[in-house]
Amino acid sequence: MKKKFIGLTLTLTAILSTSVVFTSPAFAATTLTVDCQTTLRGVTHCASGSLYGVTESKPFDITQFVAPLKPNVFTNPALSGFNHQQPIGAAIPVAGRLKNTTGKVMIRLADIFSGWPYSFKNMNDWLSKVTNVINQKKASGYSNFYGYEIWNEPNGTFKNTSVSFNDMWRQTYKLIRSLDPNAQIIGPSYSYYNHNNMNAFLSFCKANNCLPDVICWHELGGSQYISSNIRDLKSLEKTLGIPEKKMSVNEYCDSNHYAEGQPGASAPFIAKFERNKVDAACISWWWTNAPGRLGSLMASDTQKGAGWWFYKWYGDMTGNMVNVIPQNDNSNLVDGFACVDSNSKYISVLLGGVNDGTVNVNIKNIPAFIGSTATVKVEKVDWTSKDTPVNGTTIVSSKGYTVSNGAINLSIPNTNNTSGYRVYISH
Fold first, then answer.
1. φ, ψ for residue 243, nearest 5 deg
2. How far is CA 45 from the centre of its chain?
3. What is the CATH number of domain 30-39+319-426?
4. What is the pLDDT of residues 306-343, one digit of tens each?
5. Strand 280-283 to strand 246-252: parallel, antiparallel, or no bridges (unpaired)?
6. 329 near 227, Cβ under 8 Å?
7. Neighbours of 76 (CB within 10 A)
8. What is the pTM of this model?
9. What keywords were assigned to this record (predicted)?
């Protein structure tokens, strides 16, 4: 249907162009507003993590490739190897590799099973397997675990007819609480956000005293749905009389999976996660032949990609996250996120997304420590593909700006959809 429409459009254009002169449409430049006075929360690097992005041996060097990103949460299989969903990446040894970083591990219990959908047998078998994992986790001595994700994408992978998903959840929840009472319990981890599914699940959990500590789902269709989904969840919590829970999106990716880890596609995701105070988010893992690449931030086991440098800028953020207002919160258009550090005396703004070539960045309520004249450095990192190594970032400009009425307005020309940008402001 789309091909027919395009063909018709081209035909009409050819006919009309014989008598009419067309000019290119004029688009208004994209504008981002950074409000340095509106603090969201302290820096958490909430979206700096990935699904199966770290394994028992990859990336090659944790100190060089992982620690500088100040990672938050990685999702890993409870067990790996023969007869399990994943051949590599078991949560407990990965937690050991990450113990000297900021990284924490979310244990995906469903990956105990092989098959897709998972080869769940019966509750006795399942609870015995979960008990074994909990005991191994406790015996490890590691403290950098985020919690237990009971199941993964139950709307498509829980097919058992002898027990419902909700009842499996209730029994598993009770077991975890009895064996590891201080651990966070995470779910339902739907493959996409759906109001009716979430309403039914949370209603059941409230009635049966088994509400998750962290409400989790996946965003794999693009960043444009995140804010509206979170608004819906918060409305549900109020309607059901449930206290606000932490939120995790432990798989996120652009609808174009080749853009996994791409700076331009990542920026609107991170911006919305930060603005909506998501607790943890993990880049997806579409490329199953390449685990341990930090969600395509690495071009290989030993080479940094463009995404790595963009997330390094994110990891360098300190102080407080402040509000950034995009032109359209419900889109994958240009969006950004920013921090203000009054101790180190700087402002950092990261941005990217679909745009028309020029991005105006309006920074207002600039703190007094910047002074009347600011040094503003604009940098970029360009992306060719997820498998292309990148050696570093590029300075676009560096110059002084007068702070007028507590504000600076600057333009970044010639931007593109795939690159990521940083605006760094200091005295």
1. -60, 150
2. 10
3. 2.60.40.1180
4. 999 999 999 999 999 999 999 999 999 999 999 999 99
5. parallel
6. yes
7. 33
8. 0.93
9. Plasmid
